[in-house]
Structures are given as structure tokens and as C-alpha cells.
Amino acid sequence: MIYWLTHLKHGHRELTYNPLSEISINMVQTIKYSLIRMFLRTSKTITLELLNTLVGSEVKLIIEAVYKNFALKRLILCNNQLCPEIGKAFAKALYNNDTLTQLSFSGNELTFEVVKALTDVLLVNTTLNHLCLNNNGIDSEGGKALMKAISKNTTLTLLYLKGNDFDYEVHDKLKVTLFTKNISTDLPYLDSYDFPRCSIS
């Protein structure tokens, strides 16, 4: 990679990183995209953790990987502000995925449309066991959709939901549903402090 950056057909390149330089930013994005693509193509088991960093070409690459990559087991996409179209595209890819076991969408301000698409996945998915949806501002309607899906899902063992906007009734019913299904959660008691959590442990 360093050889390519410094010699191959381009002469010497300045590798000093300057966060305000468009050349530096483009260089970092090119390297990151190339590395992600290489790992997705060559690895037998993959964990991807991408925080605050996704750009358009990388989003397409990750969606394709979720759709057809058999090595991707753990995907963490926190604080990427995924728009509804991208969120639904991820959900569509997940609908056909049977290898991913852990997924984090923490801090992405998911709309009801995206949450509903994810609950449709939970109704049919048989491999995902850890799911992180906390700090997304999911409202009570989204919470009700999650409850319906959770009640029918047979594989989830952990679900993070802190930092959403459920009303008291939905919050309590979610806790009961999760307890009944023996699914671990970070939903606090209503008077406890809401500590943020991003990655799946």
C-alpha cells in the first residue's frame, strides 16, 4: 500500500496527513475503501467497526457485503447518521443474510421506516443474536413494532435499547417482553441514568 502511494505511476506522494487538506481526506478514504474491500474478499471471519466515518462508496460496499458475503459475522455502524434510504437498504440486505450474528446501529437516528424494516428482518432472521439499537430516538410506535418482532424471534439473546424515546407504557412492556423471552437488555429502570453504549461486547 505504501509503495503504491509513493511510487506506482504517480511519482512520490506527500503522506503527511492534514485533516483540512482535501488531498489527505481523499487519500485516507481511498485507503480505507481498499482495505475494507480487501478484507471482505479475503477473510474467513470478519468484524467491521466503522464509527462516524462512512461515505457513499463504503456504504454500497458494506450493503453488498451484508447481502452476499459469507465471512461477515459482526458489523458495528455507530453514529453514521444513516438516511432512511440507506437504512432500508441495509435492512433489505439483512433480510437475505444468514451469517451475521452481531449488529450495532447505535446512534444513527433511525426513522420509523427503518425500524419497521429491521423488525421485518427479526421476524425471519435465524442467525442474528446480538442487536444494538440504542441512542436512536426510536419512538413508541417503533417500540411497539419491536415488541411484535421480538415476541416471534427465536434467536436474539441481547438487545440494547437505551437512549430511545419510548413512553412509559411501551418501555415497561418492552422490558416484560424481553424478560419473558430471556433476552438481555440495557433498558434501565425509568429513574436510572442513561449511560450511552455503542459497541457490542
From TrEMBL:
Cited InterPro entries: Leu-rich_rpt, LRR-containing, LRR_dom_sf
> Pfam families in the record, alphabetically?
LRR_6
Domain of life (superkingdom): Eukaryota
Q: What is this protein called?
A: 14263_t:CDS:1
Q: Which organism is it from?
A: Cetraspora pellucida
